[in-house]
Amino acid sequence: MAQIRVEHLRKQFSDFVAVQDSTLTVENGEFFVMLGPSGCGKTTTLRMIAGLELPTSGKILLDGEDVTFKRAAERDIAFVFQLFALYPHMNVRKNIAFPLVSQGVPRAEIKARVEETARLLRIDDILDRRVSGLAGGDRQRVALGRSIVRRPKVFLMDEPLGALDAEFRDLMVRELRELHNRIGATTVYVTHDQLEAMAMADKIAVMNRGVIEQFAAPQEIYDRPVSMFVADFIGSPPMNFLALHAGLAKGARSLRVNGATVAVPEVREDVAESELALGIRPEHIRFDDSSAFRGSVFGAEYLGTTQIVTVTTEHGQLKARLPASVAVASGETVGLAFTGDRLSLFDKASGRAIASALDDRRGAHG
Amino acid sequence: MADIALSNVSKRFGERLAIDSLDLTVANGEFVVLLGPTGAGKTTTLRLVAGLERADGGSIRIDGRDVTAAEPAARDVTFVFQAYSLYPHLSVYDNLAFPLRSPARRVPEAEIGQRIQHVADILRISGKLKNRATQLSGGEMQRVAIGRALVREPSVYLMDEPLSSLDAKLRSDLRLELKHIQQNLGATILYVTHDQIEAMTMANRIGILNEGRLIQIGSPREIYENPKSLYVAARLGQPTINLMPPGLLPDGGAPAGTKTVGARTEHFRIARATNGKSHATVDWIEHLGDQNHLHVTVGGHKLVTLVDPGTELKSGDAVTVELLAPLYFDASGERIGATHAA
Fold this sequence. Notes:
The complex is a heterodimer of chains A (366) and B (342). Chain A is 23% helix and 34% strand. Chain A is of the alpha+beta class and 366 residues long. The longest helix of chain A has 18 residues, at 166-183. Chain B is 24% helix and 31% strand. A 6-stranded mixed sheet of chain B has the order 6-7-8-3-9-10, sandwiched between helices. Chain B has a 5-stranded antiparallel sheet with strand order 13-17-14-15-16, with no helix packed on it. Chain B has a 4-stranded antiparallel sheet with strand order 2-1-4-5, covered by helices on one side.
């Protein structure tokens, strides 16, 4: 078990800065996810924690011990890669035992630990099967078993589910999180899939161009994104932005947009007249005939229980998540109402969230 | 544009029957998505239509013409593959122009230019036409690959998981774009995926394949609301449909022979127990942001449903769970007691 602390971590490849200046702490037993698009620096950060890259500057502490310049083998970690490589000519038992055999662990202990690991992963019934005949899910579990059996302090995972079918990925997301709940090992997990992050993480760091834009619990990142980048990266569909040109006074509780007065969380700073964005999550929109906020339906995407309805307004398109039972027709004019206490405001030039009563929700769930 | 008709088509690879007496029609201007897990026969079906595989039995017609034995080039189809195959040494423009410059077509350069401009605008790659293919991001490369299919204006488009190599956000953008392009062009598309969201949001009709057989075909709503079997019911819906033995929850109307009751979010009414008559407990609420999953245990069975983000329920709460017209399946997994014909 271990705490990981990263201080002012920076990594530069010639003139490209992969990681700017990252500082964060992953507490003992936490499932920590680094989330962001390709090239944001998440894998580079992971590789530095693993000892596969040396930082340009900054420190990495494992349980308080400075491991910045220690070799990978001297850090008590296990790295799970995207492609699970098993030895095809060995059975499941030998595959899982392999890291222990190469460490010279006594045979009786190997047997006990392999069996304990297999029980944990619920593959104890296939220990004597050859891996070549196994289904994808069982292969993935065997690969995980090979990492777990060593009982490392920390698990590092680099998009371990990236190569799987969608259906199977959903299943493995749940299994990985349940496994984590059972063994409680500190885990650092890298992905570009926001749903994986939301489903598994205790804490998420959203990264963009080598910078951690936000580091917080999933629900807080979702409810109160600190930037347009984060708001846009999380959620499916992501947050809607209505473009508007306006000034805001401290204490304001509404603004004019698209010919209507829209309630917003109380504004906590003065904002000079400028380009702003009003951020609205799809599930905070509903149809309301009496609303002065009008738009025309562009299309609907049926999803079974719910549907995503795209509405065109003077200030841009909005995607609303509505029950599938709501009847909509393309081209129809509709009135829209919003859940006023949940809307976000951003300064468009910097992308920064404008301070508002939404900040009071920080840490509060719901 | 044209229609596609497969009649009693079979294909064997050695011992394995990959496609088993498949009947499938795609109407002119229709977007049909074949959905199924790896090995269901989706890609083989596409390759048979394209002429990349020869059928062992049955017939394939495109626009009324029997093409069962025709060469791929004689079928007037384009195929978009999962892995984009661009010419790395050519510019985006030349990659798009390539199919039009083939000696078999001889499209005048001026017309090539117009078509490329049009397609590049639709796919939002006009600014990249002069770039080398290797200077593009993955998403841009895949759009160029789709663009190369669009410029040819073939009778039918065949697409094999064209979005699966893209990241989630780009995939959702391109889903909408592709659907609009298809509607604007009136294109006939046969599309293969294992992603249920792609199938539900783009298809006019979804065909569910299993072990080389077409199990059910219908509009997304028909497949979702009226699945013919357990297999079909489990293909659509997030969270996955809950399966339980009859009698676990009071259901009133379970028909004779019911072996499994299937229930989705809309088939449950869940309320906090008020007078100690609870039979279920909330395990936890999984916050996925836009979608929150409620995990409930009833008599040792775990159920998962969607729950309103503003729900008052919390872990440990005693609740009552009622079923509202769920789906019933017999011992062989076939649907029984359907209220409307599936």
